[in-house]
Amino acid sequence: INVLPDDPAESSRHRSSHHHGRAAAYARLEEWDRASEEYRLAIELVPGRRDSRRSLANVLFRGGHLAEAARELEWLLVAEPDEPEMHNLFAAVLADQDRPEQAVAHYVEALRLSPDYFDARQNFAVYLMQLGRIDSALVQFDLLATLVPDDPRVWFQYGMALRDAGRVEESDRRLARAV
Q: Which pTM value belongs to this model?
């Protein structure tokens, strides 16, 4: 019994979906290389498949293939310049590549596109701490605390940032909210 569609284009889309599903399963198992192979097969069958490209960029990043992830993200950002998730991921890739100015620019763009984007704001705040830009990080943590006032992780990170800034009393108040 032939279960594949007669139309070759439809058959390619069907096979691409199959590979995308397999890739997602490998990604859930954190088998980044196998997932990237399957996403590449899905893209080969349907080159314009953006969901597979987004996922490929993510698993490449998680698997430590930063240059390849950056290439995928550059392609995606040409196709989808207003996607805050892609700017957030690209910022993380650039940060890991020790390209701080570009990483900061992409975090800023992600937050311009979506000011309430929790993950981007948290990633940006933590990255600013790593760069030693404590005052800028504190601004981001303050905004995070406004966005999600009941999240103990935010209060803990905020408290630790204040401690790094030498503001121990304020730090203790924030840390108390983390427990």
A: 0.87
